[in-house]
Amino acid sequence: MRMARDMISVEEAQDKILSYISVLETEAAAILDSLGQVLAEDIYAPFSVPPLDNSAMDGYAVLAENTRGAGQASPKVLKVIGQVAAGYLPSGEVGLGTAMRIMTGAPIPSGADAVAPFEDTDEVQRLPAPLTHIAILREVAKGANIRRAGEDIAVGELVLGQGIVLHPSQIGILASLGRSEVRVIRRPVIGILATGDELVELGETLAPGKIYNSNSFSLAAQVRRYGGVPRLLGIAKDTLSHLEAKIKEGLDVDMLITSAGVSTGDYDVVKDVLAAQGEIAFWTVRMKPGKPLAFGVLRGGGDNRVPHLGLPGNPVSSMIAFEQFGRPAILKMLGYKNWAKPTVEATLEEPIKNSDGRRVFARAIVTKRQGQYFARLTGPQGSGILTSMAQANGLVVVPEDVPKVEAGDRVKVQMLDWGEES
Fold first, then answer.
1. What is the tens place of the pLDDT at every residue in 306-342?
2. Rounded CA separation 160/156 (Å)
3. Coil, strand, or helix at residue 413?
4. Domain co-membership, 198 together with 178
5. Range of the domain at 206
6. d(Cα 255, Cα 187) in Å, to the nearest integer?
7. Torsion angle of C-alpha atoms 185, 186, 190, 191, degrees rounded to 10
8. What is the pTM for the complete model shown?
């Protein structure tokens, strides 16, 4: 058994993997499809937003001086010269003693310098008769309820700079500028291959001694969650020839992820294939769960080199190892600059032992009470208990040199349900 001191640290493993990973090339994407991708061009405004002064409320466009002194007991009655709705241009000019009925978003007519809201008029009392006049019941300040042209975006302004991650608000800005496409760093295609004679595909009959291939689907969901495009490659049997054949089917991807076959058993052949088809970078990491880990580069066609991440076969080990190593690799390919997991400090509600000098990632439920985070374990922490991941929203991190953390201790927790930042 390999001692913990002979293993490499999580940080060393991350650095080794990321040294083989490059930012991918750019592509043109429909703006809705670009959500979560990194912008690869500067976006300048071709026009102002809003393009014209417009009303922030339903009401009447007026000259503010025409409302001076207006009140319930001393209304100012103005002649209504027309109406304008959003999407149309006003006809006529507001002057002394006149007003124009106006809807939210409609352009301010010439001459008007304020909008009196409907609720500050006697419109309700006058309808349904034709509105020839309106009484203003409250004085309106100059500029009131008017949104100025360009107050959001000025023509020629750098609105979005390359390198930012596109969130829903940025998608809205692109749409407001009339952009249907945008140039972004493309999403990586990640091949996912399960290994093991015990695995069967979903929909097949589950014979004695067999289990369904869940790892491929949890990993594919993680890949998609972090912005990649998963490509399911099926199941490879525990033979060199079959594994080599299945891997060759996936050498046109940006990274290949396999699960199982990376420990020291007789049928753990992933490392052997790496040695034959590429190079091995490492395969044991000082962490729990997730110690058996392979990483290398496979030779594709021509000069193509495909990074390969070999994850453990136990479902929890596989998912946690992906969070530490697969996730940052995908984010780097996407052009993200920050690969660290979102982390909080929480008060532990029960003890955790660390008996063998590895970094422990314990599945936990994190809650916030009175401004403080608290973490309790999801229950049994076996690496085959996938429900422990389903219940968790965080991973309590126990350092390698800490043999035990007690209830009440403050611990670092990697959050699983928080979004990514650039």
1. 999 999 999 999 999 999 999 999 999 999 999 999 9
2. 12
3. strand
4. no
5. 4-24+187-334
6. 12
7. -150
8. 0.89
